[in-house]
Amino acid sequence: MSILSSLGRLVTEFSAARARYQTERAIHWLPIELQQDIGWPEAANTRTGARRWRWLERSKSCVLA
Which residues of 15-47 are buried (b: 16+ CB within 10 A; e: fewer)? Predict the structure, then answer.
């Protein structure tokens, strides 16, 4: 395996992980009711809802800083 093919594979994996992260962030900003309608698994768990708000507060503080 050449260095370029290894690098290409790493870039592809990073790109997929970044897209997945951005999708999850976008879905987390949706109202809980809409998340449940689309079948997002974390929306059904009430404990995750509390974690979601802590995550949002941390992300807002990072943006403001």
Answer: eeeeeeeeeeeeebeeeeeebeeeebebbeeee
